[in-house]
Amino acid sequence: MSFEEPTIAEETIFTGRVVQLKKLTVGLPNGKTSTREVIIHPGAVAVLAEPEENHVLLVQQYRKACERVLWEIPAGKLEANEAPDDAAKRELAEETGYAAARLQKIHTFFTSPGFANEVLHVYYAADLEQGELNLDEDEFVETTLVSREQVESMLTSGEIADAKTLVALLWWLGTKS
C-alpha cells in the first residue's frame, strides 16, 4: 500500500514574514480525500557551541508561542538561498558573538512533521573565537556558559524543554561519556 497523499488542490490561507499557512486537499490511500493544514517554513539551523571543554553556550529568550523563557542553543531561520553551514556560522555569531573554526553537522530533522515542513539542521561548533554580538533588533537573548554537570542537572529537572536543544545536548553528552 502506498502511504503518499497527492495534493489535489491548495489554498494559501496566510503569508507572513517567516511562514505560510496552506490548506491542502489530498488524495488518501483508500481513494477518499481529506484536508491538511500545513505550515511552510524556509528551514532553520541550530548550533551547539563548546567554547571550553565540557562547557556549552546556551541562550535564554522569551518565546511568545510558549509564553515563557526557554533555554536553547543558538538558532535561526535560513535566509533565501542560504546554505545551512553559512546560516549556522551567521546565527552563532549574531547570538553569541563567537566564530567557529570547526563546524560539524550532527543532525537534520523535521521539527513538527504533523503540520509543518520545517527542516532543522543542528551543528556542533568548536575552536571558537570570541567576537561581538549582533542581535536582530527584535531579538533579546542572554548567553550563558553552562558546564556538563549543569546540563545534566537541567535535563534531569526538565528545565530544558526545547526539542532542538534536547537533541543537541543529548548528542553532546553521549559523545563525551
Automatic annotation (TrEMBL):
Its cofactor is Mg(2+). SUPFAM superfamilies: Nudix. Residues 39-168 form the Nudix hydrolase domain. It comes from the Bacteria. Keywords: Hydrolase. InterPro entries: Nudix_hydrolase, NUDIX_hydrolase-like_dom_sf, NUDIX_hydrolase_CS, NUDIX_hydrolase_dom. PANTHER family: NUDIX HYDROLASE DOMAIN-CONTAINING PROTEIN (PTHR11839:SF18), UDP/ADP-SUGAR PYROPHOSPHATASE (PTHR11839). Belongs to the Nudix hydrolase family. This is NUDIX domain-containing protein. It comes from Alicyclobacillus fodiniaquatilis. The lineage of its organism: Bacteria, Bacillati, Bacillota, Bacilli, Bacillales.
